[in-house]
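Sharing a chain and its predicted structure for anyone who wants a worked example. Both blocks are below, sequence first, tokens second.
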Amino acid sequence: MKLKYSPAEDILLYEVSSEPIDYAQESGSVIVHFTKEGRPVLLEIMDASKFLAATAKARAKATKKLGS
């Protein structure tokens, strides 16, 4: 597993496997690259700072709700 962040492009790359990439699917600001067998290899998170801020906010809200 490898993480790489490019501040100039605000892209976070999360490599979960070193298998060869066959195709990719995009959903919003996330692109997931897959093997022929459909296993995820690489996640590209565009506008990573916004994505991570929104994720942290959602997590804090969920945690607060569970603690109530």
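Comments welcome. Residues 2-67 form one domain.
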